[in-house]
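Q: A reviewer asked whether we had any structural model of the full assembly, not just the individual parts. We don't, so I'm hoping you can provide one. Inputs are below.
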Amino acid sequence: MSLITFDPARVPTFQVAAKSLLGDTQMRKNVRHATDVIQGKRKIVVDEMPDWQQLRESGRQIKEHTLKHLDHYLQQFEENCTKAGGVVHWARDAAEARAIVIDLVKQSGSNEVIKIKSMTTEEIGLNKGLEAVGVHAYETDLAELIIQMGNDLPSHIVVPALHKNRQQIREIFKREMNLPNLGDKPADLAEAARTFLREKFLRVKTGVSGANFLIAETGGVCVTESEGNGRMCLTLPETLITIAGVEKVIPRYQDLEVFLQLLPRSATGERMNPYNSIWTGVHPTDGPRSFHIVLMDNARTKILADDEARQTLACIRCGACQNICPVYRQTGGHAYGSVYAGPIGAILTPQLQEMHSGQSLPYASSLCGACYEVCPVKINIPEVLIHLRHKVVEQDTQGFGALNPEALAMKAMAMLFTSERRFRAAQRMGRMAERPLVNKAGWVTWLPGLLGGWTQVRDLHEMPRQTFREWFEQRGATDGK
Amino acid sequence: MAYHDWDVSNRVRNYFRNFFVDATQEHRLRVSLFITCYNDTLFPDTGKAVVQVLERLGHTVVFPAGQTCCGQMHWNTGYQEEALPLLARFVSQFKDAEAVVIPSSSCVAMMREHYLKMAEKIGDKQLIADVEDLLPRVWEFSEFLTKKLGLTDVGAYFPHRVTYHASCHGLRSLGLGDGPVTLLRSVKGIQLVEIKNLEQCCGFGGTFAVKNAEVSSAMLGEKVQAILNTQAELCTACDNSCLMHIEGALHRQRTGVKTLHLAEVLAGTESGAR
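A: Here is a predicted structure for the entire assembly that you could use as a starting point for your response.
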């Protein structure tokens, strides 16, 4: 069973990981196919909405408002959830959150838990933590089950096993569930998972979930899902433990009106999620007898304090930016070395790791802006990427770092651009310096050092004999200003 | 996008449209050209074409000689301090311009999306005011034609099979929409063919092409294949940065397909064959 996690200290840079993953043609085919299908479905259900842009703006504003008053809404949530019979725990970081959950599971008297798909529990490596103290976690979401049984890692926020195709999934199930005659039709695979999971739903006494939304005014928690496994995990166990990042809170019940339209249409191309569960504390005759919620910071307040990056926390984890990202679609999610892949991962991961690792991620983008255009809460991901790149450069140019080749080249270019005389001289020098590299037909097919990446698959035409400004001046029409 | 024939009604309609727009503007414009650092150095023909088109339309082009670079490469790569002086330089060179035309959507996007923030970072009140005042007069070349001058037909002749690549910054940051395509449709003799995945990034992304060369190449591979599928003789766009990247692969693969900036397509006339 899968207990591997992304270890920030040991994952390779995006460049290195991407390079090797680009060789996995089957994975790339799977990712391309799956993201094409989801995008196609999304387009239909988004285009049919006359007020989609207003909805996006509403979503953005609700999130912005909430983040500005996060302390207020979190306290309000705590108060109302407690009133309804829930127990609220606060966790500063991943380690604290894991410890609290482990403690609660032990108190529940169970050495097994059933889990709803939750990126937050992936973020803190909960399964590994539980296993270390002898508690086994069963993932009940189909894709998470595939990841767990395949000893794999999630590659997408919404569809974590998107990099696997049906045949590969059948092989995993055949092996792990001991079903030698399993077919590869979706119904066969779903039936195998259903049979495997149903027994766990009925037997295991403790459930663990994440949360899509925390409603401050009622203390309620909302989870949306497609398979119904979540409903089982939320209603059958005696003890329910939910883990959520502090940014998941929204002010009012009514705000769900906006998000329950934005989320399913953006995430899976559905008009509504098949299962939307909202529960508030505990109820004497129904559902779990005890309910705990762990509200986790884990660097989120650091992001909150950063004016230019704060919008990162508005994310509702729909994965639309991953599906449309031309970089993600080439490399798949594992290249990002984090449970949060794609454009949102490129801004979220390094910040969750407080810029101690993941510095290559803000550069894993051509800044094409497709993510911003598709984001249901209008997170300007390119803007945040550029902001984080600045932070990385600040780190990289500390002390002797200022002498790294890129920094020196950038400084030199800046020198040229701040003087017309130097710029002209550089243009002339460039033509001369380039000469040895130009072939007879007038093309450069090899470049040294940092620029070598260009000529791996591209030629470069030689510099023209005359710059534009030289031509314009020769023409005798230069206006002094 | 199918072949659009040149017909008399089109000609008449455009004549009146041009007449109307000119009349409302009262005078011919004095256009300040910001050529951009890489067009100046690597694509002088694009600049010449911009001058030709604008002069053919009756406007005057001036070239402030102290101009260099908008700062996009530094800013987008994370070297913000190095980019700041370039903002001040641009403003000092162009603040009195009647209109600034730039044949590069990514440089215009850089200005519209970041210049105000940069000026605020510098903290110079006069500079902030100047940026706010100047930005509305800054135009990408094709949008200057379509939005500022209200033209679709600039009297061009270009008898070739052409496909148009919508560069990301033009498409998403500037919202050029089908402006460039409308200009191309009015070109006499052109055979315009639409590319599949028109809105997908070509993989250039500035320093991305070097820092993540392999991913950039994979993205480029898709774009090049889509271009080849159109069987166009050449690919045009509003950004020579994308085109340099695309051209690099088209040439390496010996496809015989060329790239040409939109301005150079629009500069073609029946008398001066391009």
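A: Points you may want to mention in the reply: The domain at 161-267 of chain B is CATH 3.40.50 (Rossmann fold). Confidence is low (pLDDT under 50) at residues 1-9 of chain B.
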